[in-house]
Design brief:
Blueprint lengths: L9 H12 L3 H14 L4 E7 L5 E6 L6 H6 L27 H8 L1 E7 L6 E7 L2 E8 L4 E7 L6 H5 L4 H16 L6 E6 L2 E6 L4 H9 L7 E7 L4 E7 L11 E5 L2 E3 L2 H10 L12 E6 L21 H18 L57 H11 L10 H8 L7 H14 L13 E3 L3 E6 L2 E6 H19 L4 E11 L2 H17 L2 E4 L4 E8 L7 H13 L6 H16 L9 H12 L14 E5 H6 L3
Parallel strand pairs: 1-7, 11-13
Antiparallel strand pairs: 1-2, 2-6, 3-4, 3-6, 4-5, 7-8, 9-10, 10-13, 11-12, 14-15, 15-16, 16-20, 17-19, 18-19
Bound molecules: adenosine-5'-diphosphate and magnesium ion (MG).
Length: 630
C-alpha cells in the first residue's frame, strides 16, 4: 500500500487557520487596524460596505512596506514584530504571529497598495483565495491601503454564518470602540455605505470617550489614578448615579490593548458597593500599564482575556483607586438599598421638644369577612383564632382548613391578611357573585383576598385557588401586547416632556428597524438629529423611568438576533414590556382590581402559565381540604 500522508497545500492550510483568526468582518477590521497602529500611523480611515460583507478598506499613513515585504506579508508566519520566542516577553505591538494577513488572503479578494516614505513608487498586489493574481508598481500615497472584498466568497459555509448587517455592524462598532478608546492620539474615521459614522480627531482619553458616547457623559466621569511598583492605573469611572441596568460602558485596557477581566471587574464593583442599585453597573474606562513580561502574551489572537502574574496584588489597587475617585468627588452612599429600615430621618438634636410617636390607627375589629350578620373580634390570643373560621365559612363559602405547613392557615393565625375595606366587602362580594367566575352555584361565591401582597386567593369549582398576582398580570399584558403588535393597533399615552434617547450608530440602526413594532405597542418615537430620538409617547402602563431601560434592552436583544427571527423578536418585545409593566409583589389590590385581573386572566388562552412557563395558578383541591379534617 502506498503512503497516505501528504502536506496540505498552503492555500488550504491558510483557509483552515483563517477559521480561528477571522470569524466575521469585525475580525478583519481588528487585524488590519492593529497592523496600521503597529506601523506608526497617525490617521486611519475605515471604509465598509454592507457591514463589511462586500468591502472592508483600511487606509493608513503608517510606514508602508517595501515591494518584497508587500509580497511577503501574506505568507504564514510572516511578521516583522518578533524574531525569536524571547521577544514575546517584551512585546509592545499588537500583532506578532504573522497569521492575520495570510488568513485574510485565504478567504477573500484582497487588494494592497503600499508605499514607504523613502520610496518613489509604491506596490500594488492583488490576491484571490490565497493566490497572487497581480503585482505591479503604482503611484500611491505613503502608507498602506488594504481593500478586502467579498469576505468568505470561497468558503460558503462560513459566509452562511454571517448574521444580519445590523448585527455585523454592531460587532464592527464594538471592535472599533475597543481600538479607538486606547489610541486617542490617532485620528480615526469610520464610513459605512458612504456615510460617516464616526470621525474622531486626535485628542486625549477623556475627549475620545466623549466623542464616542456624547457630551452627556463628560460631567459624569471621575478620573482614577494609581501608581505602584507593579502597575500603573489611569482612566475614568462614571459616578454612581450613572449606573445602569443596560448598556454600561465597561472597558479595561492593558498596555494599549483591550482586555476582558472578570476578576478586576469585581474589584470595581466592590468599590461601588452599596452606592448603586442592585442589578445596575457603572461605566468605566480603566487603563493598566504593566511590565509586558508580567502578563501572559501568548494569548490566542481572538481571545481578550489576559492573565496577569500578580492579579491578587493588583485587585486591591484597582478597588482602592476607584474608591478614592468616588470619595474625592464626595460621592458617598446616599441610600442603603439593602436595608431600608436603616434610613435615618432627620431629627432635631438641639431641641428639647419631644416628638410624638406617630399614631398608627388600627381598627382592631377589622375583618374582611365581617358584616352585620357576623362580626369577628380580632384577638391576639391564639386561642381565639378559630373564631375567624366561623365567619370565614359563613361569608365566603370556603371550607376552613388547617395544616401545620400551610402558609395560609399560619397567616390566618397571625392575622396577616391584606384586608381590603370591610364596607366594600359586601358590595364586591355581590359583584363577584354576579360574575360567578367559580361556576359552582351559591355555596361557591367568588371572593378575593390578597395574601402577603403577592397572591390572590379565590374559590373555584375544584377548590381554593391561589394566583400569583405578578405572573397573572404579566400573562394578561403579554397577550394584550401581542395582539397590539399583530393587529398593529397599540394605544399610546403622550408624555408631558419627551424623553431623549441618545444612541450609538449601531443601536440607531437597530432602532430604525424596530420602529414599526414599537409603534404598534404604543410608542411614539421620532428621530431628533443623528442617532438621537425623542420619545413622545409610550404604552400607557409604562412608567417614564422605565422607558430607556426597556428600549435599550430590546435594542440589545435585536442587535444579536438574526434577521429571520423577527417573530421571535416581537414576542420578546411584548414579553419584556409585560414584565416591566405588570403589577409587582407588594402592590396592594382592591377587590375590584383583583376581580378584574382574575377575569382577564381566565380569558387568556393559557392562564395557567406565563410565557416563560412559570406557574401562575395553584389550586388546593376540595378533596385535599376535606382530607385535612378527617
Ligand atoms: P503580525 O501583525 O502578527 O506581524 P500580520 O499578518 O498581521 O502579522 O502582518 C504581517 C506583517 O505585514 C507585519 O508584521 C508587518 O510587517 C506588515 N504589515 C501589515 N500591515 C501593515 C501596515 N498597515 N503597514 C505596514 N506594514 C504592515
Ligand atoms: Mg497583525
Amino acid at each position: 500500500m502506498s503512503d497516505i500522508i501528504h502536506l496540505l497545500p498552503d492555500t488550504v492550510a491558510n483557509q483552515i487557520a483563517a477559521g480561528e483568526v477571522i470569524q466575521r468582518p469585525a475580525s478583519v477590521i481588528k487585524e488590519l487596524v492593529e497592523n496600521s497602529i503597529d506601523a506608526g500611523s497617525t490617521e486611519i480611515q475605515i471604509i465598509i460596505k454592507d457591514a463589511g460583507r462586500t468591502l472592508i478598506q483600511v487606509i493608513d499613513n503608517g510606514k508602508g512596506m517595501s515591494e518584497t515585504d508587500a509580497r511577503l506579508c501574506f505568507e504564514r508566519h510572516a511578521t516583522s514584530k518578533i524574531k525569536s520566542a524571547d521577544d514575546l516577553f517584551s512585546l509592545q505591538t499588537m500583532g506578532f504571529r504573522g497569521e492575520a494577513l495570510a488568513s485574510i488572503g485565504a478567504i477573500a479578494q484582497v487588494e494592497l497598495k503600499t508605499k514607504r516614505k523613502e520610496d518613489e513608487i509604491g506596490t500594488l498586489i492583488e490576491m484571490s483565495g490565497g493566490n497572487v493574481e497581480k503585482q505591479e508598481s503604482i503611484m500611491c500615497p505613503n502608507g498602506t491601503n488594504f481593500a478586502i472584498k467579498n469576505i468568505f466568497y470561497n468558503v460558503p459555509a462560513r459566509r452562511k454564518f454571517l448574521k444580519s448587517n445590523t448585527t455585523e455592524f454592531t460587532h464592527i462598532e464594538k471592535e472599533f470602540f475597543r481600538i479607538v478608546l486606547v489610541n486617542p492620539s490617532i485620528s480615526f474615521e469610520l464610513i459605512h455605505n458612504n456615510e460617516v459614522c464616526y470621525k474622531l480627531k486626535s485628542c486625549n482619553v477623556k475627549e475620545r470617550i466623549v466623542s464616542l458616547f456624547g457630551k452627556g457623559i463628560n460631567s459624569q466621569l471621575l478620573s482614577i489614578n494609581a501608581d505602584s511598583s507593579i502597575v500603573q492605573i489611569s482612566g475614568f469611572v462614571g459616578g454612581p448615579e450613572t449606573a445602569k441596568k443596560q448598556n454600561s460602558k465597561q472597558y479595561f485596557f492593558v498596555n494599549g490593548r483591550y482586555m476582558r477581566h472578570p476578576y478586576f471587574h469585581k474589584a470595581v464593583m466592590q468599590a461601588f458597593d452599596r452606592m448603586i442599585q442592585p442589578n445596575t453597573s457603572p461605566d468605566y474606562f480603566i487603563y493598566f500599564t504593566i511590565d509586558p513580561s508580567s502578563i501572559d502574551v501568548n494569548i490566542h489572537p481572538t481571545k481578550t482575556e489576559i492573565k496577569f502574574e500578580s492579579e491578587q496584588a493588583i485587585w486591591p489597587i484597582v478597588m482602592a483607586c476607584v474608591k478614592e475617585a468616588l470619595g474625592k468627588f464626595n460621592v458617598t452612599p446616599a441610600i442603603d438599598f439593602e436595608s431600608p429600615e436603616t434610613i435615618n430621618f432627620p431629627y432635631k438634636t438641639h431641641s428639647t421638644e419631644i416628638l410624638d410617636t406617630p399614631l398608627i390607627k388600627v381598627d382592631p375589629t377589622y375583618n374582611p369577612f365581617a358584616s352585620e350578620k357576623c362580626s369577628y373580634k380580632r384577638s391576639d390570643s391564639k386561642t381565639n383564632w378559630e373564631q375567624l373560621y366561623n365567619g370565614f365559612e359563613k361569608q365566603s363559602g370556603l371550607t376552613p382548613f388547617e395544616t401545620d405547613d400551610s402558609l395560609f392557615s399560619e397567616t390566618i393565625k397571625r392575622n396577616e391578611f391584606d384586608f381590603t375595606s370591610a364596607e366594600d366587602q359586601f358590595q364586591e362580594e355581590k359583584e363577584a357573585e354576579q360574575l360567578d367566575l367559580n361556576m359552582g352555584k351559591d355555596e361557591n361565591k367568588a371572593i378575593y383576598f390578597q395574601y402577603k401582597s403577592k397572591y390572590i386567593f379565590t374559590t373555584t369549582k375544584s377548590g381554593l385557588t391561589c394566583i400569583d398576582q405578578h405572573r397573572a398580570h404579566e400573562r394578561v399584558l403579554f397577550d394584550q401586547y401581542m395582539q397590539c403588535i399583530n393587529n398593529e393597533s397599540g394605544v399610546s399615552q403622550k408624555l408631558l416632556f419627551p424623553e431623549m434617547l441618545e444612541l450609538l450608530e449601531s443601536e440607531s440602526l437597530v432602532l430604525k428597524e424596530l420602529l414599526d413594532d414599537l409603534n404598534y405597542l404604543g410608542f411614539e418615537i421620532e428621530p431628533f438629529g443623528k442617532n438621537t430620538y425623542a420619545i413622545n409617547g409610550t404604552p400607557s402602563d409604562l412608567k417614564p423611568s422605565a422607558i430607556k431601560d426597556y428600549l435599550l434592552e430590546i435594542i440589545n436583544e435585536a442587535k444579536l438576533e438574526n434577521k429571520d427571527l423577527r417573530d421571535e423578536l416581537k414576542r420578546k418585545m411584548a414579553l419584556s414590556l409585560a414584565k416591566t409593566t405588570a403589577i409587582t409583589v407588594g402592590q396592594r389590590l382592591t377587590q375590584e382590581e383583583m376581580m378584574e385581573l382574575v377575569c382577564n386572566l381566565f380569558s387568556c388562552n393559557n392562564p395557567s402559565f406565563t410565557e416563560e412557563n412559570k406557574k401562575i395558578i395553584s389550586t388546593i383541591e376540595n378533596e385535599e381540604i376535606e382530607k385535612r379534617f378527617k
